[in-house]
Design goal:
alpha/beta, Rossmann fold, nine-stranded mixed sheet, two-stranded antiparallel ribbon, globular, disordered N terminus
């Protein structure tokens, strides 16, 4: 959910500081793309790391280079098909002899695997001297086959897809292209966290660990109101032309970013960081950063529809999250912010409780960006190495102490 298309905002101001791996979140001017980059930048900190090697590709590749898995037709759970499907991905590190150290990390809403590259390395959240890391471009991000780049199903001719469809494409990448039968972990932020929950119930024995951060196993009515408002903003733009875009969509995409910026952090954060006389400058920055055409708008709509359709209990044919949670067999670390206004944290907390998972709460007015205001990088690294070393707790934003 962050990129210049979406969940990122530009950050500036007086709250940024780095002290021995603890990163403070700077004040934001909210275009949703830099916000995600900021979230991830702030999540990533230094810590020690081990090692191990052996490439997963059949042909030599430059580490971290954009790659594509040609998967032919991708059959969707709705019965539809995405034709000539290509899944974008990047790999880092080396697969060990036992093939037991692979970690899959899919992108967030509007995000791309490129946005995650700077956060993978020997001193980052996922240490590539120890793990073989697969960064995946989720369906609809404009890199993987999407409304904006499909030749056979362009724009709104592109079928609706779900979070589960994203997972199915990623599973095919892991098994058919990378020839993996097991993963050490699946992890992700925001929509990446949603995919992580889906992985846990779709392929419960395929991984050892699951780490959804500010994600959800089910969209609430509040979530659906937010995503619907953003879709409505796009469709009300005269340039949308009933799904046959006629030109730049800057006007509506600016409004989408404004709506998103209200939800990205808490009201308390925004009031503290932007004075009343600074609102016009904030709005100008949001609108200037929101540029795009009809293809970009269609990508946004389809990914939001996927999020709105997210309902793991219904998918399993059960009534509640409490009934769905036992389907997960992997060890589960759930990280939420109780003040998250972009992805409601209640479903994730219920799921964690029912699954007996480790739940880490981030007590911060930064809301959806709390993993940047309260660094969770070291917690994630410890869990990857030794799940028993991480316990449920509430981490507090230093600014609130």
């Amino acid at each position: 959910m962050f990129t210049h298309n979406d969940e990122s905002a530009q950050c500036r101001g007086n709250r940024a500081a780095v002290v021995y791996g603890f990163v403070r979140m700077p004040p934001m001017t909210n275009s949703l793309r830099s916000a995600t980059l900021t979230l991830l930048i702030l999540i990533i900190l230094s810590w020690p790391a081990p090692s191990h090697p052996q490439p997963a590709q059949t042909a030599p590749q430059t580490e971290g280079a954009q790659q594509f898995a040609d998967l032919g037709d991708l059959r969707l759970r709705s019965g539809g098909v995405i034709r000539d499907f290509r899944l974008g991905y990047r790999t880092f590190g080396k697969l060990n002899a036992e093939k037991s150290n692979a970690i899959l990390w899919p992108s967030w809403l509007g995000g791309k695997s490129q946005d995650l590259v700077q956060f993978i390395g020997p001193t980052k959240v996922v240490d590539i001297s120890r793990y073989f890391v697969i960064l995946v471009d989720a369906i609809g991000d404009g890199v993987t086959t999407s409304p904006s780049n499909s030749k056979s199903q362009p724009l709104m001719k592109f079928p609706e897809f779900t979070i589960r469809d994203m997972v199915e494409s990623e599973h095919r990448l892991a098994t058919e292209i990378l020839h993996l039968s097991h993963l050490r972990a699946v992890m992700g932020l925001s929509m990446g966290g949603m995919q992580t929950f889906e992985w846990g119930i779709a392929y419960p024995d395929f991984m050892d660990l699951l780490i959804p951060m500010v994600g959800s196993p089910q969209s609430t009515s509040y979530d659906k109101l937010l995503w619907t408002a953003q879709i409505d903003a796009i469709e009300l733009d005269p340039a949308w032309n009933h799904g046959n875009p006629t030109g730049p969509m800057d006007r509506s995409l600016g409004l989408v970013e404004e709506i998103g910026s209200m939800n990205l952090t808490s009201p308390a954060y925004r009031v503290a960081e932007t004075k009343p006389d600074g609102v016009n400058a904030l709005l100008t920055e949001i609108r200037n950063s929101a540029r795009g055409d009809g293809g970009n708008a269609c990508d946004r709509i389809r990914q939001r529809q996927a999020i709105m359709a997210l309902d793991i209990p219904a998918e399993l044919g059960v009534a509640t999250l409490e009934q769905a949670a036992p389907k997960v067999h992997a060890k589960l670390l759930v990280i939420v912010s109780p003040e998250d206004h972009l992805v409601n944290p209640e479903p994730a907390m219920k799921f964690a409780s029912a699954a007996g998972a480790t739940l880490v709460k981030l007590d911060s007015p930064c809301g959806h960006l709390s993993p940047g205001c309260i660094s969770v990088g070291p917690t994630v690294a410890r869990f990857l190495a030794d799940p028993a070393s991480v316990h449920g707790e509430t981490l507090q934003d230093a600014a609130k102490r």
